[in-house]
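step=encode ok
step=design start
structure_in=
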């Protein structure tokens, strides 16, 4: 099985605040899989660390009100191109992220409120038929 994984979940320090979101559950799930780490935000040219951003009205906006939508979309497109060349079976992405959120994202007010929706990258993958989940909803892995 080939799995794309948000690099922060694998322990890469690419999170907006310079940290990571290392998930032992994701790492265990990926044992025996071919893993392709991805970070659409870094792929889009955004620095680490960077100001937090959320989706508001379909546009990715930093906390200071500056749009970073173009960088988010460019990074998502670069990562999608990489994954389409690799025949990915599943993407495990960071929950609630404006790039990677799957099914639920922050509402754009920077208040911690959640709304239904997908991040930019997650939506792009779903649109191409690539199954997407997050670290909080890992599927049951069966032996192949």
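sequence_out=
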């Amino acid at each position: 099985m080939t799995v794309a994984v948000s690099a922060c979940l694998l322990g890469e320090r690419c999170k907006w605040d310079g940290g990571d979101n290392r998930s032992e559950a994701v790492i265990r799930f990926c044992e025996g899989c071919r893993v392709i780490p991805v970070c659409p935000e870094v792929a889009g040219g955004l620095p680490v660390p960077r100001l937090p951003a959320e989706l508001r009205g379909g546009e990715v906006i930093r906390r200071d009100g500056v749009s970073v939508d173009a960088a988010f979309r460019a990074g998502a497109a670069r990562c999608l191109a990489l994954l389409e060349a690799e025949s990915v079976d599943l993407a495990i992405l960071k929950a609630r992220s404006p790039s990677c959120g799957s099914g639920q994202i922050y509402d754009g007010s920077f208040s911690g409120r959640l709304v239904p929706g997908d991040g930019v990258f997650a939506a792009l993958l779903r649109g191409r038929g690539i199954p997407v989940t997050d670290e909080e909803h890992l599927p049951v892995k069966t032996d192949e």
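step=design ok
step=annotate ok -> The chain has a mean pLDDT of 96.
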